Amino acid sequence: MLFPARFNAHLIAVFFAIGVFPVFADDDDNRIQPAQATAGQSAVLLSDEVQKLSGLESVTLAASNYRPEFAAYGKAVAIQPLLALRSQYLVALAEQKSAAAKFKLAEQSIKRQQDLYNNDIASKRSLQNQQSQWQTDKALLDASQFRIKAIYDEALINWGKALTDWVLSPDAGKLAPFLSGRQSLLLITLPASSHLTDGVKEIYIEPSGIRSKAVKATLISAAPQIDGAVQGESYFFQADSGRIRPGMRVAAWITQQDEDRAGVMIPKSALIWHLDQAFVYIKTDKDRFSRRPVTHFSATADGYFIGGGIGPGEELVTTGAQMLLSEEMRGQIPDEDDD
Fold it and tell me: How far from the centroid of its chain's Cα atoms is residue 274's Cα?
């Protein structure tokens, strides 16, 4: 029985949808042929017409560079404690200047009083009173200096040297972006087994955890304290505020090395799994598709980066790989007539 060409095409599409592929005696070129072994790998043969009807798509791979990343988490830190330390520091500085001025005057007075006493002009009691005042003023000056050092040490222990210098500097220019809300201060904690590679000064952060929306954050310094729950290294970063508010949790992506790796980038739809092994299909000829194992790949915002086993210039199946796998597996099942 013969069918019109238009009806034949629709019928083939239906068979693809339901997974049934009858053999037409007069149309052998338009059906999927059995899987064949080629140089140790099986291949699936599809005619051009069947490829179009099944919606199979492929793309020629281009060379790509990539730096492997690992994920970390952190939060936006309120800067009020830093401002409080700055306020205390400025008050302590003012007190120290006042105490220094009084002590200088006391030194001048006791020197003059000593000269008067040595010339029998002033009494011993007046000299002793002046010495007592000198000691009082010296104690006040020492106390103000101790107070300044205590504030500096507190800032150093909690915030590290870089932020301490920013906050306690007479010129608070580096704090201006935080005060205006243009920049946010971030505390990022790495996983316990991870480290910030030397030379890495920027990372990517995003509150919602979507890598494709991430923005850059710039390293300020290592944090002197760690998160007790995570037990990983912590670092201070700064980033444009955007949607970030103090107390908000953020996800971070950090490069594992400061050099790019060469390879190819593939879309997520191209990767399939079979028996706990990842595979892709490569179009090796106009009607031939071979399955290729993928052993090492890294997830990215755009898909997967593959550093070996697949190269630029090869034609990768991006849509229809799962269908090819199904046909390959079915082609390996012997027909009942072969018994």
Answer: 31
Tokens of residue 332, six digits: 């390996």
- Within 10 Å of residue 239's Cβ, how many Cβ atoms? 23
Q: How far is CA 231 from CA 40, 108, 205, 237, in A?
A: 48, 57, 20, 19
DSSP string, 157-169: HHHHHHHHHHHHS
State the Cα–Cα distance between residues 63 and 263, nearest whole angstrom.
6
Alpha helices (H) along 4-75: 5-18, 48-54
**pLDDT single digits (tens) 171-226:** 778 888 998 889 999 999 999 888 888 888 999 999 998 888 899 999 999 999 87
> What token pair was written down for 254?
């950090």
> 188, 71 in Cβ contact below 8 A?
no
pLDDT > 90 in the chain, percent: 46
Q: How far apart are CA 161 and CA 184, in angstroms?
A: 18
What's the half-sphere exposure (Cβ side, CA atoms, 13 Å) at 161? 0
- Kindly provide the residue ranges of all beta strands, DSSP E only, lying in the chain, ordered along the sequence: 33-38, 41-45, 57-60, 63-66, 69-77, 183-189, 202-206, 215-222, 234-240, 249-255, 261-266, 272-274, 277-285, 288-294, 297-299, 304-306, 315-319
